[in-house]
Amino acid sequence: MCSNHRGITLLSLPGKVYSGVLERRSVGLSNLGFRRSNMVPEKWIAGGVCRCSVRLDGKTVLVTGANTGIGKETCRDLAARGARVVMACRDLVRAEQAAEKIRRSTGNGNVVIRHLDLASIYSVTQFAKDFQDSEDRLDVLINNAGVMMCPRKITEDGFETQMAVNHLGHFLLTNLLLPMLRSSAPSRVINVSSIAHQGGRIDFDDLFFTKRPYSALGSYRQSKLANVLFTRELARRLTGL
């Protein structure tokens, strides 16, 4: 899903890594609780590799959940293209280990780490303030971090963890950084979702499973659906801006 408006491009992508890049047509089997089998044709998990050679020198890219998986490989590719890469992670030790590997493999020393806990409103708010105070631009925001099918846990702010980390934290972060994205136009916001959103249903009367039995998969699915709906609505509101 991609919407283009003056200055900011909004995308919502189901994510999988192919040779260090995002493959937008991929299916995250683990997200659905399936293993590779005849139920899932190979054509749904196969895809092309981005061969674009565009450089990103002078651009600043912020990636959440950047120390492993899709986030880490995305950072590696961006760094190889010359971008300044800001890795926003909860675990700074693992983040620094990942950042150092990226610096060494790409030769780009302009890869930095910052602490961000998307389960905490305070952490997100403080991160956005510090980022705007220390950085002079933001060309791309990649909302990648997430948790999947974990036991029910309530955050310090009273939110169910999967919804808090996968959607609410990114919702707040994006809105706090919108002025900076606008001032750096043309800019881009990428929300990494999952095909699991297709089975999602958002119960606004019981968003955090306080009235009904908790479902780890159901919670994950609704958080991924929220990613997609947020992308669509943000794109609509930015039309003409």
Structural class label: alpha/beta
Q: How does the major sheet shape up? A: 7 strands, mixed
The CATH class is identified as Alpha Beta
- The ordered string of helix (H) and strand (E) elements is EEEEHEHEHEHEHEH
Protein name: Si:dkey-23o4.6
InterPro entries: NAD(P)-bd_dom_sf, SDR_fam
Family: Belongs to the short-chain dehydrogenases/reductases (SDR) family.
Keywords: Oxidoreductase
Q: What report would you give on this structure?
A:
By secondary structure, the protein is an alpha/beta fold. It has one domain: Rossmann fold, CATH 3.40.50. Helix content is 38%, strand content 17%. The chain has six helices and nine strands, in the order ββββαβαβαβαβαβα. The chain has helices at residues 29-32, 69-80, 92-106, 121-134, 161-183, 216-238; strands spanning 2-4, 8-14, 17-18, 21-22, 60-64, 84-89, 111-115, 140-143, 187-193. Strands 1-2-9-8-5-6-7 form a seven-stranded mixed β-sheet, sandwiched between helices. β6 (84-89), α3 (92-106) and β7 form a beta-alpha-beta unit. α5 (161-183) runs parallel beside α6. The longest helix is centred in the C-terminal third of the chain and has 23 residues, at 161-183. The relative contact order is 0.18.
